[in-house]
Every structure is written in C-alpha cells, then in structure tokens.
Design a protein that fits this description.
alpha/beta; D-Maltodextrin-Binding Protein, domain 2; 3-stranded antiparallel β-sheet; 18 helices; globular; disordered N terminus
C-alpha cells in the first residue's frame, strides 16, 4: 500500500496536529503499520518496500512522499515535534546532526550492539555521518559525491582541453575564464556555483576545519578567506552567474547546465539521476566528470566533499523495533534499487559491477566517469560545522556570506563578524551547560 501526501507551508502546524494521534501499534489488518516519510518521488516505484511487506507479513510499510522544496526538512521537524505517526524518516545534507542534538531522533546504539553491526565495515567514510557525540542516530542510505560536470562538446568547440582529475582550484578558475563567452541572453558562463550553505568554501575545507583545536570558530582562517575572495572574483568578473542573480531567478545547477548556460558546474552525483531523465532534461551534448579541484598543490587528488542521506527513527515513533527491521532491510537489500535511480548507495557489502552499471545506465556517461563516483581513494570532507553551537554556526555563516556576496559588507568585516558571532554562540552554549 502506498500513499502520497502534500503538505503546504500554511498547514505545517495543522499537519503536526493531524498526525499527532498516529496509527497506533497495529492497523486494521492486525499488522504493525510503519509510516515511512521521504521526499524522493522515485520511492513510489521502489520495489524494495513491497518486497519487505511480502517477506514480513507482521509489518506493513506505508510510504508518504512530502514535496521536495527548501522547506521539506522544516516540515518534517514540525511533524516529528508534534508526535506524528512518522516511524521512519529520510534525512539529508547533514540535517541528522541538528535533529539528533534537538532530540528528534532515536539513539540506535542498542540495535547496532544487539545485531553485532560493524558500522565502519558497512559504510566506510559514510559512518561518521551516522553518529553524533559518539552515538549512532541514523543508518546511511546514499552519498552525494561532489564533483565537476562539464560540457565536453563546448570544450571541443572552443579548443580547450578537458580538466584533469588532479587539477587545482586556481586551474578551475582559469578554465572558467577561458570558457566564458557570448553576451546578453546568449552569454555562457564558464561555471556555476550554487548559493547553498557550504558551497563557497568547498576547497577551503580541504585545508582547514570549522573549529580550532580549543573548539572556537576557525572561520577566519586563511583558506576560508581565500575561498570567499575567489567566489567573489568569479561573480564580479562575470565567469559565473552571480549570487544576486541566482537568488532572483531561483535557479539550480541542473537548470543552468542542461540548458547550456554554463560550461562547468560544481555539483554532485545526483546530477546523474537527472541525466537519466531525458524527458525532463533533453540535453544534446556530451558530458564529462572530473574529480573536485584541490585547494592547492599540497592537497592530495580526489579530495572531495560528500553529503550523506540516511534513514532514522524519530523519538516519537510508537514502533521502533519494527521500524529498525525495515531500515536494515531497506539499506542492506535495496542498494541495487537505489543505484538504479542514479544515486550512490553507501552500503559497502552490496558493491559489485552490476550495481555500478545500474547507477550509470541511461546517463550516457563513459564507464570511466561512472566509476569515479565509487572510487575507494576519494577522501570525503563534510561541508558543515558539527560541534558546539553548530545550528547557530550554520545560520551565521549563511547570513554573513550572503551580505558579502551581495556587496552589503566588505570581506574584512564579514570575516570579523562571522568569527565574533560564532565565538559568542559557542561560549553561550558552554555557559548554559554549566
């Protein structure tokens, strides 16, 4: 049984109340009903859910798809805080850390110990995304592997060699300049970099951490300052669509790239999903994939960023044991189905040639580029602060950098204000713990 629901912003709190009663321990059939909430529209055709229901006659998983937009995580938070009927919820982009900190997710250490699960062996580098303050709160589903997609046809027409996998950020900027051409409505930018949190500092994080050794803000470190300077240079020089234009047009990486408005795009493996959807994105050029550029020559090649999506059990779930059974089944037996959608699964025991082929099938990418997303040598970095006052840290960074990129503040003032505001938030949190 599958059910799709829509929740509007104006109905957020009404939704929390609506679902507050939950479905109870069992449904009308006597089965334990597990309500699985996600924003992945393709889950509606994922056979793993029906397969689980067939093989587990005492449980019925019911799928709920919440519309995917910038408010999705807020909607889910409100519903969980309202004691809704959510038993399993998908979480992405590091939101699990804030949700765990705010008490929205069930600690699953007891299940992992009971089942004798080796999280590091199962998930490799993605394992760190599963825990907060030493405890596990989620079971990793898939990873968005950061990379650069480029229009090979455009490179060829301009006589420019393709980027190499060991390139640096300086080489990336130089290529963006060479690739920019045309004017007005016919202008093609060399690259596109989104305004989402963390995107401006992706190479800085190869060189510096968000926190100093004593736990204070490190956002004033030179790598962060340099990445701010470089993003502003790309914007002001017209080598990429600037920050204000992106806000005004509400555009995205896939829109700009597939419409041939940029030659390169800083994105992630989810672009492969879009490449497979030729009806929605009917592009007519060859695409190449390069590993993410290095901050400088001191950084090893293939140092990228990741963003792990996971499944979790809300603390308000009335059926955590059954929810855990479904989560394990889904992750450990569903990797092939996840890969078919153009998404990189992170359950390592399921890796094989069939799964990798399924990931790239229909994308048009050459085999060598497909395999880059599964390269065991990739070092994945986290593009958000995780530690003291991390919610405030994230908000402050976004507020202050937005002012800088829209020319409302100088670089120097932006860095000073980020540092002082985050340090204060950290000290305030420490004082509240005493």
């Amino acid at each position: 049984m599958k059910r799709i629901i829509s929740i509007t912003l104006t109905a957020l709190f009404a939704s929390a109340v609506l679902f507050a009663g939950g479905s109870g321990e069992t449904g009308k059939t006597g089965k334990t009903v597990i309500n699985y909430y996600t924003w992945e529209a393709l889950e509606d055709s994922n056979p793993i859910i029906e397969q689980f229901n067939r093989e587990n006659p005492d449980i019925e998983v019911v799928l709920h798809i919440v519309p995917d937009n910038p408010d999705t995580q807020v909607k889910l938070d409100v519903m969980m805080m309202g004691s809704s009927d959510i038993d399993v919820v998908q979480i992405a982009d590091g939101q699990q850390f804030a949700k765990a900190k705010n008490g929205l997710l069930r600690n699953i250490d007891d299940y992992i110990r009971r089942d004798g699960i080796d999280m590091k062996a199962n998930f490799g580098g993605a394992e760190e995304w599963a825990k907060f303050e030493g405890s596990y709160y989620v079971y990793p589903r898939h990873n968005s592997v950061g990379c650069v997609f480029y229009n090979k046809t455009m490179f060829d027409s301009l006589g420019i060699p393709y980027p190499k996998d060991d390139w640096t950020y300086a080489e990336y900027i130089a290529l963006a300049e060479r690739l920019t051409h045309g004017s007005g409505s016919n202008k093609v930018y060399g690259t596109f970099n989104h305004i989402r949190p963390g995107f401006w500092c992706l190479t800085a994080l190869q060189k510096a951490d968000f926190y100093t050794s004593d736990g204070m803000a490190n956002i004033n470190a030179e790598p962060f300052v340099n990445d701010l300077r470089n993003r502003m240079h790309l914007d002001s020089s017209g080598y990429e669509k600037n920050y204000s234009e992106i806000i005004a047009t509400n555009t995205l990486q896939n829109i700009e790239f597939f419409n041939k408005k940029c030659a390169m795009v800083m994105a992630a493996s989810w672009m492969v999903r879009d490449m497979k959807n030729k009806e929605k994105y009917p592009y007519d050029f060859e695409v190449g994939v390069a590993h993410f550029p290095r901050y400088d020559g001191t950084i090893a090649p293939k140092t990228s960023w990741g963003s792990v999506s996971a499944l979790a059990i809300p603390t308000t779930s009335k059926n955590p044991d059954a929810a855990w059974r479904f989560i394990r089944y889904y992750i450990e037996k569903g990797s092939l189905e996840i890969a078919k959608t153009g998404t990189v699964p992170v359950y390592l025991p399921a890796y094989n040639r069939e799964m990798i082929a399924a990931f790239g099938e229909g994308s048009g990418l050459p085999q060598g580029d497909i395999e880059k997303f599964f390269d065991p040598e990739i070092v994945s970095i986290m593009k958000m602060p995780v530690g003291e006052a991390m919610n405030e840290y994230n908000s402050i960074i976004q507020e202050e950098t937005s002012l800088f990129f829209t020319n409302a503040k100088s670089l120097e003032q932006t860095v000073r204000d980020m540092k002082s505001r985050v340090d204060k938030a950290i000290l305030d949190e420490r004082s509240q713990k005493k």
